[in-house]
Structure formats: C-alpha cells, structure tokens
Amino acid sequence: MAPGKSRQKDGKAGDVAAKDEAALALRKDGSIEIRVHAKPGAKVSKVTDVGAEQIGVSIAAPPRDGEANEELIRHLRQVLGVAKSEINFDKGAKSRSKVIVVSSKQQLTIEQSHIPPALPMLLLSLLAVYFQTIPSSTAVDDQGCSGCSAYQCIEKEASCGPRGYPIGFGWRNCRVFEDPVIRSRFTPAGVEWANCTAKCLIDALQQFITAEPGATCDRISSRAYSSHVGCYIQCGFCSICADNKWALARAYNYGDFFSFRALQQIWSIAKECGPFACFCKG
Description:
Elements: E1 8-9, E2 12-13, E3 24-26, E4 32-40, E5 46-50, E6 55-59, H1 67-80, E7 87-91, E8 97-102, H2 122-125, H3 149-158, H4 165-176, H5 180-184, H6 188-211, H7 217-226, H8 228-234, H9 237-249, H10 260-273
Parallel strand pairs: 4-6
Antiparallel strand pairs: 1-2, 3-4, 4-8, 5-6, 7-8
C-alpha cells in the first residue's frame, strides 16, 4: 500500500498519515512531529525521500518483534543527535506509517538569537534548507570554465581530491541540478534564485582563490561554506523557499544535511528569514 493511504487491521488504525497532514509539524509545546513511512528489511538505514505528507526511511531490520522500530529510533537518534528520552512514538508503532515526536531540550550554542530556542534544528534540516551548491551557474572565466565546470577548473588549481569542496560538494551537487526534471520542479522565481545563487557562490570562491593562491583545502572549504548564507539571502531565498521547499528537499543528498556546519547555516538562514518562512505555503 502506498504511503499516506489509510488502512485498518485488527480494528486498529494502520497507516496514520492523513490528508493535509504535514510530514513535519511544530507542536505548541515546541516539540517536532515527524510522519515517517518505514521500509523494513533494507540493507542500510537511511532517509530515502521527503514528501509533503511523510518522510520515507529504509530500516536495516526485519519487521518483527519490534526490531524495525528499535532500528528506526536508533537511526533517527543518530542523525538528529538527540537522546533516547527525547524521541518517542506517538502513533503507528505497529504499522509502517508512524508519527514520531522529538522534544529536544538541547540549546543551540552557535550564537544567541530571538528565534524560539524550542525550534529544533530538525525542522529545517530535513527540508533541505541547507544547500551545498546550486545549479547551472553563468559564471565564466577566461578559460571557458562555465556552469558546473567552474568547480572542475577550481579543482585543477586546488587539488583537493574527490572529497574536497570543489568536486565533493560543488561539482557533485551542481550536476544534479543540471537535470531538467529537477529544474522543472522549481517555480520561475525559484529557478531565478538558483541561477543567481550559483553565480554568487562560484564568484566568491574564484575571488578567494585568486586573492589567496596556494590556500589549503581546509581554507578553501571554510571560505566556500562561509559564502553560502550571504549568497542565499542576497538572491532572495526568504521569498522563494516556501513555494519551492519540496523541490529543494527532493534535490539533495540527505546525508549532507546533518553536519554541524550545515546546522549552523540552517540556523543563520532561519534567523534571517524567520523560523517559519519556509512553511507558510506549498
């Protein structure tokens, strides 16, 4: 049965996701409600998709004797960095569609903010408000290094390897956004923002390498990441994120969302846009 459908078994509700219910919701007490469609029997546990009504998670455990539930909670605890006491089932413990509540008491220590401290980092991280690179740049240098190829040209100078920022982050994700299917999911304003941000990010990185030749790969990575928030905001992220959040969520590698550096940037963007700017539409 497809995620989001209602099912009855032995007089009890099976799948709990209902129409018009969001995959993520902020409760009045500050906790986060997550609607998950679990897929037991997988080789590895990982987030597989983010939909409007549910988040798909593959589970490396068989669907028996509570093993899948235990593995699901273990995996979510690991990626979200919360304690066992901070994550619990609210509904659907015996079905594949579940409602899980996260009530993290941890405070962000990046810097003080007027955003309510009860807003967990999860709310933005699972919706991919962290962008490592953006599509189809118009940035061009004298050697014709345009679009995603600009990252390859930067790599020739930097030699940071396949896991370094230019190739491991910039070029890898940029290529994803060259896919017409990915781009077709964005609104016209979303595409305009993406193009603007791409040029901004590549220009910032090229300018740094020109100004600081011989910079270490750590310096290059740090400087590249430091330009993300400014470029996103400057190009109008706050005005497009609500209408494009699901297109963004489907475009990124979920494993990239859960680093401390990513969460720092999510927090900075939330402060600029307001914590709920991306959840008012769509």
